[in-house]
Write a structure and sequence with these properties.
With about 1200 residues, chain A is an alpha/beta fold. The relative contact order of chain B is 0.14. Classes of the chains: A alpha/beta (about 1200), B alpha/beta (about 325).
């Protein structure tokens, strides 16, 4: 009997692919990264494929690189695989044409995901796969985790039989991340199925100097066409050969697949055709409708390319008079969506030839873009539409299109859930262990019973204070429900504050059981908002409560409540007799080889849970005095009230098409309206201890602690708890007051401000000027009022102080605030600083990654505006093109300025001296910029009434006369790897752009995969065995160009040097690159200690601080200024405080030792080089201009 | 007259009573060899700290899990090894190498603070070939609600658990801060300890005046620190069925001789090795030999315990009398007056 295991789609695919591959070329992209991670993990542990070798896994610099490497590998006759999604797949397209054009076997597994258009989305649809239709790859679709496992293997087997490369795809997240108990193929199965002769033939065709051939020739009009047609026989045979592989597979393992599979009534009059995970939902609808006497069915497409018309017609019931083809993609401007077009063509041809007696009526539907929920109710609506005399021939389902009226309405109450299947929903906080515990429960049930099990996990897009919802199903019947649980018999809320944020009990079925983790189990009912109490009463819910935090804490597990809540789940649901021992067995298995102490603590938690679990006595009537309703301030813009609010409270699905900006342009400054109040502790200012250095504000990742200096008389209407002291410095004259104010509702409680505070209380050295204090309701109310008052105080006049000091920079209003970044993030303080210094005239090109997610993920975005409505304008193009995208900004600005200057020259007569003043303005400092702004305002006033073309044009170009600061921002994955080619070009262009590399030394956003910035000796995803080579020294590479301003900074080590670098970079009339050390959660550290890590990185010599300013050469000065001292601590004192390094000492101690020695040596050598460079004498050198001065004039 | 410097400690035959105590020097195999060449009777390896083992394991597990399943793009950030090789495997490897390189007994050292799963490491150390195990008990009980009796009970439990896990002799390195040292010592022996090391030396924090903060500091001993272990060795000699080792304050051959005279089976040296090098071992032994020659002692065994309080019926009274005598005989230096 086959092994059964609960695994997710990515692992299911990776298992088959690993068994049948020799080489894998990988690159991270959500939601496909995990397949590459599995390969790397297994290879690092020496797992073998079916031929007894460990596959070679190589991470490339981009998906294009991975495709190229895979192409190379298969060209030499290896068995190659690669994985990707979305933009990554698009980057592979040119190579795919080549691979297929050369009839080379290869498999590309795709966790299908939306292609970024008006916005990026990490979620699933077929828009990426559909872009590959012309490549010549066979396209094979899976609709479930089991299918993904099986068809992955079939793809690998069929590619050798057919010589056609296969793209095997399955829906991103819905299948790639769904955990499902499946039957696993054994090594023997793979061995029995593989055709070694076909593989030998492939190998024999590989490039080999022993029998050389030439591929990739260049052909001319005389032969190209014929040569292109020469592959036809292989394509003609592909479908039949693939079916033969499927048949062989069925014979061996018992699961039968066909090119097209039909499910439903044999005489169906209505049929839906689709592919992917939506099939499960349609099948359930088909069963439900047929049970009511209707005649419907679904045709499942497996092999989409080559499209076998014969097999299709054979599978389609002849009775089908009305057919809806559902596509999970959108091709704007096309007559119809792609699958529909194929179906329509086949049917029309069959009808024309007489093979088909009657032409069915065809509807073309679009569904499920970006993982939009697709439930049986929606499928039922499609079947209903097919019955109408005049249906919508083009429709969408699952949304409300109130603009073009394409959407079908559906009855959300239509349910096909099996009554005997247990459905459970768990609300938790990100990283609180809830999802892990649920995966664990699925495993226990799957391992110990014959039950089928499914888990699907929904995360929100914040990186701090995020919410997770786990949807679990268990039952004796196979589970096809590829949609979220809508009515659960068991609902658990693992974090009580969520009860006030979301409608947790909206998912509870009548009579369901509700479990709440609360710090006050005795008052569990009373503490709930009114809506929850009403739901408990009206649905007659059984209510249990536990203080899981106390149980976990007493057991020594800190805040991790997963074990406690898991015990509660099994105890209440009685799903599994003897669950206690099984949970303990799992704990032992999970932690036994790592820490017996952790095992003991979890055992203790298991044993103590039941003593603390209680059933809550529910009163007859609600007792609550508060509701869950989120009230937004009246002054919030209309868009916030109408659109953003709905997304914030989890009702985004209800928003109609008309509410969405059609071009993807959203308002900025919206995080201020989303008060998340997620901190457990917030900073409190001790004004008597404060030395007014503003370092707390400098390091705050969320701009939630701010200083302000303001006139004393502004305090007249201050709230009673508002704190204020005399301002110590003289910048603003006498009677100036100073406040450090906390935006408590926006704080994540990371504690970096406390770490940064240098002031110590004279009576109690433990206390500083900033101390963390519990975030109570009372404090929340007071600080809300205080922060509002603080914001109403006048901003300091920038002409009266130097903004380019640590303190001065913090007196400038941050125009990047309250992002969803991790609490303690090491990146955001740099962005915030840039906005404080230049935000009012900043235009940002942001590479995809963490900074684009916390920078631009809905519902609210952190780039904000000053009181005049000015602030950073921001856009994200792609991951790979960001430097070029930003360069385009500069080109446009320069072109617009040039046009404006020309118009000024032309209109000089009418404008007088203003034209010269505008053209020749000195905008090197704030005062100069302010003066120019006044001139531009004057110009606009003068031009506004004019009707001539020149005036109108100059008016539209007037803003270009203001100095703009172009910032190109991204992480090391972009800068060192995928975007390096463009970045290299841009820094070499000489153009006036500023590049900020937020260097976390890994691909943080996708889960910590290694980049070329990953240091030697660190463990990372895709480097499970430890990185063997040193990180790329990009700073020195850029400095070697001679015309690039380069700074290496670490604000935790030297905030002053960081400010200096930002100032100089912006002032430099050419390309400037700042490489910024960014501590990161992926390093495996407590982020509140990030500043300390930065200090140690610098003190150890690992991250020497320097500024390389080419403009100093002209002054006869050395451009290289070294800003840190010689290494004074051994490298290990820095690196072994981070789990990414320590992990290697635990897993491979000898390797760790060797790599440490090598890394230490490298640090010393690099330091010697830097020191040498910084001591070179430039005084006698002939003053020189940069090697290649800026090619285009830029703003003065 | 030939002088026999050999000693018996923990049932082991030592070629001399001088034993370099657990210190960083012992982490280096070459240094251990030099100790043996200098005449050390045995070597104690650096301590494997309970915190080192448990905290490392737990920290790694914590950081592997603390950010798991936080966002849909990053279900975790670090690859997870199947198992950890922390502390003990490295330490056991060091024990194996030391055993291979040396002919003198190798004593491993475990530094513990609480009873717990860590005692399994004692077994790993034994399997690696250690001749004995020194159990280094260390507490800093700052909780005013925890009574001394609870601390003692916990320590005794640790000793019992460790002794139950291994067949090799276990010596307990004792804290000088028990209120009834003799009683606790007896209970350790009852719990299975084959030897007592007097005493554990605790490093006290210092204050950094520049940063206005406390910082850990290493306080090396001087010969002045010898008095306490001397007294208690004298008291316990013959009263407990266990080997005794003096530790803390042995810097010269005079210090070592005093220790043997009051009843020490072994004399541990640490600070002197750290300050003046491993050569101190041969210097001390040379001095001991010459003193013994001058005073016509033929062997360590002969003089061991000759100045102990073995025959004193009431050592407590004896000690108080000494205390009075010492104070009354003390004259303030002129400067202080």
């Amino acid at each position: 009997m086959a092994d059964k295991e609960p695994i997710d789609g990515n692992e299911a695919v990776a298992r088959s692919a690993y068994a049948l591959s020799e080489v894998a070329a990988i690159y991270p992209i959500t939601p496909a990264s995990n397949m590459g991670e599995w390969f790397d993990d297994w290879a690092s542990k020496g797992h073998k494929n079916i031929w007894g070798t460990v596959p070679i896994v190589s991470e490339l610099q981009s998906e294009a690189g991975a495709a190229g490497a895979a192409h190379g590998a298969v060209s030499v006759g290896a068995l190659g695989a690669t994985f990707t999604a979305s933009q990554g797949l698009l980057l592979k397209v040119p190579v795919m044409y080549k691979v297929a054009g050369e009839l080379t076997p290869m498999v590309l597994h795709v966790a299908a995901r939306s292609v970024a258009t008006h916005a990026l989305s990490i979620f699933g649809d077929h828009s990426d796969v559909m872009c590959t239709r012309g490549t010549g790859f066979a396209l094979l679709s899976s609709g479930s985790v089991q299918e993904a496992h099986d068809l992955a293997a079939i793809a690998h087997l069929a590619t050798f039989e057919t010589r056609i490369p296969f793209l095997h795809f399955f829906d991103g997240f819905r299948t790639s991340h769904e955990v499902h108990k499946i039957e696993l193929l054994s090594q023997d199965d793979f061995k029995a199925l593989v055709d070694d002769e076909a593989i030998r033939q492939h190998r024999a065709r590989g490039l080999n100097p022993e029998h050389p051939t030439l591929k990739g020739s260049a052909q001319n009009p005389d032969v190209f066409f014929q040569a292109r047609e020469a592959c036809n026989p292989w394509y003609d045979a592909c479908a039949a050969k693939t079916q033969a592989v499927m048949d062989k597979f069925a014979k061996r393992v018992g699961r039968a697949y066909h090119l097209f599979d039909y499910y439903g009534h044999k005489d169906a009059d209505r049929v839906v055709i689709l592919m992917g995970s939506g099939i499960g939902a349609v099948e359930e609808a088909v069963d439900a409708l047929n049970a009511k006497g209707e005649k419907v069915g679904v045709l499942k497409v497996r092999l989409y390319r080559p499209f076998d018309a014969r097999a299709f017609l054979k599978a389609l019931p002849v009775s089908a008079k009305n057919i809806a083809v559902l596509d999970r993609c959108k091709e704007p401007g096309a007559n119809s969506e792609p699958l529909f077009s194929d179906v329509a063509t086949v049917l029309q041809e069959a009808f024309s030839s007489g093979e088909l007696k009657a032409m069915p009526r065809l509807l073309c539907g679009r569904y499920g873009l970006s993982s939009k929920e697709f439930a049986p109710s929606m499928a039922a609506a499609v079947f209903a539409e097919l019955q109408k005399p005049e249906p919508k021939t083009r429709f969408t389902i699952g949304i409300n299109d109130d603009v073009t009226k394409l959407s079908l309405s559906y009855d959300p109450a239509f349910s096909t859930e099996d009554a005997k299947t247990t459905r459970a929903v768990f609300f938790g906080l990100g990283a609180d262990g809830t999802v892990g515990a649920n995966k664990n429960s699925i495993k226990i049930i799957a391992d110990e019973t014959d039950m089928h099990a499914q888990g699907y996990f929904v995360y929100d897009s914040k990186k701090s204070g995020s919410m997770t919802i786990s949807h679990l199903r268990f039952g004796s019947k196979p589970i096809r429900s590829t949609y979220l649980v809508r009515e659960a018999q068991f609902v658990a809320c693992h974090s009580e504050p969520l009860m006030s944020r979301v409608d947790v009990l909206g998912l509870a079925a009548p009579g369901a059981t509700f479990l709440l983790n609360t710090t006050t189990p005795d008052k569990a009912f009373d503490s709930l908002p009114l809506e929850a109490q009403q739901a408990i009463l009206s649905k007659k819910l059984k209510f249990y409560a536990i203080d899981a935090y106390s149980v976990a804490k007493d057991a020594g597990l800190g805040p991790r409540i997963n074990t406690v809540m898991q015990v509660c789940f099994f105890e209440i649901t009685k799903l599994l007799p003897g669950y206690m021992d099984l949970i303990k067995k799992t704990i032992q298995k999970t932690y036994g080889s790592k820490s017996q102490e952790i095992v003991s603590k979890n055992f203790k938690a298991v044993e103590n849970t039941l003593k603390n679990l209680r059933e809550v006595k529910v009163p007859a009537k609600p007792t609550a005095t508060r509701t869950r309703v989120v009230e937004l301030p009246k002054e919030a813009p209309e868009f916030i009230h109408k659109v953003t609010k709905a997304i914030m409270i989890g009702r985004g699905d209800d928003l109609p098409v008309s509410s969405m900006p059609a071009d993807g342009a959203f308002p900025t400054a919206t995080t201020q309206w989303e008060k998340r109040a997620i901190a457990l502790d917030v900073p409190a200012w001790d004004s008597s201890t404060c030395i007014q250095c503003a370092k707390c504000s400098f390091v705050c990742p969320h701009a939630s602690i701010r200083p302000k200096a303001y006139p004393a008389d502004a305090l007249k209407s201050a709230p009673t708890t508002f704190k204020s002291v005399d301002y110590r410095a003289k910048d603003f004259g006498p009677n100036t007051k100073f406040t450090i104010q906390v935006a408590a509702e926006d704080c994540t409680g990371c504690g970096l401000c406390v770490e940064a505070c240098p002031a110590k209380n004279k009576q109690d050295a433990k206390r500083k000027a900033i101390n963390m204090t519990p975030f109570t309701g009372e404090l929340q109310a007071a600080e809300k009022e205080n922060f509002a008052f603080f914001m109403s105080l006048p901003e300091a006049d920038r002409t009266k102080f130097d903004p380019f000091t640590v303190k001065g920079s913090q007196l400038c209003r941050p125009l990047f605030e309250f992002s969803g970044a991790c609490g303690g993030c090491g990146e955001t303080p740099y962005i915030k600083l840039a906005t404080q210094l230049f935000g009012e005239r900043m235009i940002v090109a942001n590479a995809t990654g963490c900074s684009s997610i916390y920078g631009g993920n809905l519902p609210t975005t952190p780039y904000s505006q000053n009181k005049d409505g000015r602030g950073p304008a921001w856009s994200n193009s792609l991951f790979e093109d960001n430097a070029e995208f930003g360069l385009g900004f500069r080109l446009a600005l320069d072109a617009q300025r040039a046009r404006a200057l020309e118009l000024l020259r032309k209109m000089k007569g009418a404008l007088g001296s203003l034209a010269d003043d505008l053209a020749n303005a000195d905008q090197k400092d704030d005062a100069g910029i302010l003066a120019q702004r006044r001139r531009v305002d004057e110009l606009k006033k003068k031009l506004a009434p004019a009707s001539d073309a020149d005036s109108k044009n100059l008016l539209s170009l007037a803003d270009s006369l203001l100095r703009k600061s172009v910032w190109i921002i991204g992480g090391d994955g972009w800068a060192y790897d995928i975007g390096y080619g463009g970045l290299d070009h841009v820094v070499r262009s000489g153009m006036n752009v500023k590049l900020l590399v937020l260097d976390t030394e890994v691909y943080s956003n996708t889960g910590g995969q290694q980049s070329k910035a990953t240091p030697r000796g660190a463990v990372a995803r895709f480097a499970a065995a430890g990185k063997r080579l040193p990180r790329k020294d990009f700073a020195m590479l850029a400095a070697s160009y001679g015309n690039v301003y380069v700074a290496r900074v670490a604000f935790g080590s030297s905030d002053a040097q960081t400010v200096k670098a930002f100032k100089e970079a912006e002032a430099y009339e050419g390309p400037a690159l700042i490489i910024a050390y960014s501590h990161c959660i992926a390093h495996g550290i407590n982020l509140s200690k990030g500043l300390e890590q930065q200090k140690l990185a610098v003190e150890s010599g690992y991250w020497p601080l320097f500024r390389y300013n080419p403009s100093r050469i002209a002054e006869g000065k050395n451009p290289m200024e070294l800003d840190s001292k010689a290494p004074k601590i051994p490298l290990q004192d820095y690196i072994y405080r981070e789990t990414r390094y320590r992990m290697l000492t635990a897993s491979k101690p000898e390797v760790a030792k060797q790599l440490l020695a090598e890394a230490q040596k490298e640090v010393e050598e690099k330091w010697r080089l830097l020191e040498h460079l910084s001591k070179l004498d430039y005084s006698s050198a002939k003053p020189q201009t940069p090697a290649e001065p800026p090619q285009t004039a830029t703003a003065a | 007259m030939p002088i026999d410097l050999s000693a018996k400690y923990l049932g082991l035959k030592l070629k001399s009573p001088i034993v370099p105590a657990a210190c960083p020097l012992g982490a280096d195999l070459d240094a251990l060899k030099k100790m043996e060449e200098a005449g050390a009777g045995a070597v104690v390896l650096p301590s494997l700290f309970e915190e080192q083992m448990l905290s490392e394991e737990q920290t790694l597990v914590h950081y592997l899990t603390h950010s798991k399943e936080q966002t849909s793009e990053a279900l975790s950030y670090l690859p997870e090894p199947d198992e950890f090789h922390i502390g003990a495997p490295d330490y056991a490897d060091h024990v194996r190498k030391a055993k291979k390189a040396l002919s003198v007994p190798v004593i491993a050292s475990l530094n513990a603070a609480t009873p717990g799963g860590w005692v399994r490491y004692a077994r790993e150390i034994e399997q690696a070939g250690a001749d004995a195990l020194e159990l280094n008990l260390y507490h800093l009980v700052s909780d005013p609600t925890v009574p001394g009796s609870q601390v003692e009970a916990s320590d005794i439990r640790i000793v019992r658990e460790a002794c139950a896990r291994v067949k090799i002799p276990v010596a307990v390195k004792v804290s000088p801060f028990y209120s009834a040292i003799a009683n606790v010592a007896a209970q350790f022996v009852e719990a299975g300890a084959r030897g007592l090391v007097l005493f554990n030396r605790f490093h006290q924090p210092d204050i950094n005046l520049d940063k206005i903060e406390a910082r850990p500091a290493v306080n090396l001993s001087t010969s002045a620190d010898l008095s306490l272990p001397l007294r208690w060795t004298a008291i316990l000699h013959g009263r407990v069925k266990a080997s005794l080792a003096v530790s803390s304050g042995v810097h010269t051959h005079e210090d070592a001789l005093k220790a043997v005279l009051v009843g020490a089976d072994a004399v541990c040296v640490c600070s002197e090795l750290l300050t003046s090098g491993i050569g101190a071992v041969s210097r001390i032994l040379k001095g001991m030999r010459s003193w013994m020659e001058r005073n016509e002692y033929s062997s360590i065994e002969q003089m061991k315990g000759s100045l102990s309080h073995r025959n004193c019926p009431d050592p407590e009274a004896f000690e108080r009398a000494h205390y009075v005598k010492a104070l009354s005989g003390y004259h303030l230096p002129a400067k202080a007056r």
